[in-house]
Amino acid sequence: ALAKAPERFGFDRFRDLALDPSLSINQKMDGVDDSRDGYDAAIWASILDVLPRLNAPDADVLDIGPGCGGVARSMIALAEAQGHRLTLVDHAEMLALLPDSPAAIRVPGRFPEGLAASPQADASYDVILAYSVLQYVIVDANPFAFIDAALARLKPGGALLVGDAPNFSKLRRFLSSEAGRTHHYAYMKTDQPPDVPAFALLKDRIDDGVMLGLVSRARLAGFDAYLLPQPETLPFARWREDLLIRRP
After folding, report:
1. Please, are residues 139 and 9 in contact by the beta-carbon 8 Å criterion?
2. Could you tell me which of 137, 144, 76, 74 has the C-alpha nearest to residue 111?
3. Running DSSP on this structure, what letter comes out for residue 109?
4. Residues of the chain with pLDDT under 50
5. Are 86 and 103 in contact (CB under 8 A)?
6. Would you say 207 and 168 are in contact if contact means Cβ atoms under 8 Å apart?
7. How many of the other CB atoms lie within 10 Å of CB of 151?
């Protein structure tokens, strides 16, 4: 299904969501939306496909904003099975909802400040994951500084996946297409055409300028960077994409 644009709230809002007992696990991570329900296995498979180092033993792994759902739990289980050293950075209240594991170090706080103030301040990683995070970073922080800080922690040969980024430009292109209109009629159960927003400068949404700018910035800094389409098995594939950056 084509999801609505995410609420524009930043990092601090997730503390309240984590503490709300009325919300399901997925609602705590998606701003009181349950549109991830049933997709954990497909999301996890797509991550493993792009980050094959996770399926090899003995890696240093950083998960930025893991939340408390099935993907984070799969990451912990894989760390135990493969002997990874996993670091999870998120609100303390969100991390408390995850199972304890000797393979996982919990670092409360916002990235990169929380990690910089922790015993892992000088750590570097083979794999860094920030899945469905960038749309919240852009609300109250600098997405370019966020990526810079993550790249600074990549080991040679390491990979950073900034996954599930909702690209407003991609959404607009889809809704302007015949396929997008057909989807809209069926999904919304209406005979009214979709309301396609006009092109405009966006203050707190991700668009082509942000995504292509991050690719260019990473490449100019000596990294290989790619925008990847999501598999059609994922719930938001029509308007989200993944950013993969590798350190040679």
Report:
1. yes
2. 137
3. S
4. 1-6
5. yes
6. yes
7. 19
What are the structure tokens assigned to 129, written together?
A: 């994951």
pLDDT of residue 194: 75
Task: Check residue 55 and give left, alpha or beta (phi > 0: left; psi -120 to 50: alpha).
Answer: alpha
* Residues whose CB falls within 8 Å of the CB of residue 142, separated by 6 or more in sequence, listed in order: none
* Per-residue confidence (pLDDT) for residue 31, from 0 to 100: 66
Task: Write the CA distances from 204 to 8, 124, 142, 144, integer angstroms.
Answer: 7, 30, 10, 13
Segment 177-201, tens digit of pLDDT = 777 777 667 767 787 877 766 666 6
Specify whether the backbone of 173 is left (phi greater than 0), alpha (psi in -120 to 50) or beta.
Answer: alpha
Do 245 and 225 meet the contact criterion of CB atoms below 8 Å apart? yes
Q: What is the pLDDT of residue 199?
A: 61
Both tokens assigned to 115: 């990690």
Query: Is the peptide bond preceding residue 197 cis, with omega within 30 degrees of 0?
Result: no
- Measuring CA to CA, which residue among 141, 139, 161, 140 is closest to residue 150? 161
Q: pTM of the entire structure?
A: 0.88
pLDDT value, residue 1: 40
What is the per-residue pLDDT across 13-27, written as a single tens digit (0 to 9) for each? 888 889 999 988 888
Distance (Å, whole) CA 145 – CA 150: 9
